[in-house]
Write a structure and sequence with these properties.
Strand order of the largest sheet: 1-3-4-5-6-7-8-9
Number of strands: 9
Radius of gyration: 16 Å
Shape: globular
Number of helices: 1
Structural class: mainly beta
Length: about 150
Amino acid sequence: MTIALSHATDLVVELSPPHEMGDCPAGVRRIIPIVGGTAAGPLLSGRILPIGADWQTVSRDGIADLDARYAVETAEGAVIEVVSQGVRHASAEVHARIAAGEQVDPTEYYMRTAIRLESGHPAYAWVNRALFVARGGKVGNTVRLSVWRVD
């Protein structure tokens, strides 16, 4: 049996500078506010609302645990919650380039997320019954994700 994927949307998530929490017991922690962005694709389009954040923990070996929560508002007025949990890792050299704001090709590092969407809007009830996966990367003050529904 194979798993099929359907392209749902491409997200451009705009970020403001992180709030650094420092070296905590689980690793270096930071909270990165989500301040806007867009969703554009065959199944879901809209604007990312200026609410939410990515709560990151970076382990001593450089693996980032990603835990983002935010919302997309569609043209119909539906508000869709996005819960995105994933992992990012790169070589020390690539990580330094990303941290410096350089545009690094996402093929040079690993960033994947598992996404759950939820909405009470009747036209988007289908999101409540599906799982989504995404691949992407950081570009300047944005995170760009290509999101696929697991069929």
